[in-house]
Amino acid sequence: MATTKDAPLAVSAGFQDMIVAERPKGVDEGVLGSEGIGRDDFTLPRLGLAQKMSPEIDPTSPKVIPGLAFTDLFNSLSKKVYGKGPVHFVILKRYDPRWIEFNPINEGGGIKDRDVRAGDPRTEFGPDGEKPLATMFYDFLVLNLSDLDAADPIQSVIALSLKSSGIKAAKHLNFLVKQRGPKQICKGVYELTTGSETDKKTGGVYAVYKFKNAGWLKPASPLEALAVEMFEAWKDRAVDIDVDTTQDDTGFDPEKLERQAATADM
């Protein structure tokens, strides 16, 4: 568990003592949170990550967020800035991968098709490794424990929507979820911080999400009860997530690199 006397969990006041390091005993029955789900009911904010080309840090953009800097986390709708973390959260729902096709930048950008299905030719790499026309997203619906008001917890429900350079982090978060075994997904606490990496090929520097385990909600605590209640409320509810339309500015494409590596090993 990522906490010491000198560095307590960055969790809203009153909730720190409701998180424990060791996995609670027992096996949860019924829905665990990894089942297939729907979407497109309404829009939820996104926990965004400021890249160098993000309009939110461009002083000439109408989307600029005062005080936001490269590698900072922010709420895409409320515009609240969380800095580089840590932000602690539990997962209320995880989604199957989805794809969105964007218009080329030289044609004005923006979304061309937000509902590209798995298996569509636009999700596939070209014969010479060309990037797919549609961008893959891994989405998680989370309860932000670092900005939690128990009287109005719906305001702390936010989406982690990871694409491009965030795909590697999304897969790591899926790995952390899988490691926890047969426990409801909403009972595990995770820590999110940010950093930057350099693409060795292009020299571009880009912001990255960093996830790690941060313990468990204490069994029978009010916080666990709230998380389970919200898990039940959201598990069958489809949502539309506020989409980051900023295209990757580094040329970094982890999916392409993975595909090239797999081909080289054959």
Characterise the protein shown here.
With 266 residues, this protein is an alpha+beta fold. The protein is 14% helix and 30% strand. The strands form three sheets. Strands 1, 6, 7, 8, 9, 10, 11 and 12 form an eight-stranded antiparallel beta sheet that branches. A three-stranded antiparallel beta sheet has the order 3-4-5, with no helix packed on it. The termini are far apart. The N terminus and C terminus are likely disordered.
Annotation keywords:
3-stranded antiparallel sheet; 266 residues; 3 helices; 30% strand; 8-stranded antiparallel sheet; alpha+beta; 14% helix; disordered C terminus
CA distance, first residue to last residue: 39 Å
Count of beta strands = 13
Percent of residues in β-strands: 25-35%
- Classification by helices and strands: alpha+beta
Query: What is the N-to-C order of secondary-structure elements (H for helix, E for strand)?
Result: EEEEEEEEEEHEEHEH
Percent of residues in helices: 10-25%
Q: Unreliable stretches, pLDDT < 50, 5 or more residues? A: 1-6, 34-40, 249-266
Rg for CA atoms? 19 Å
Counting DSSP H or I runs of 4 or more residues, the number of helices is 3
The structural domain count equals: 1
- Mean pLDDT score, rounded? 82
* Largest sheet report: 8 strands, antiparallel
What is the 3D shape? globular
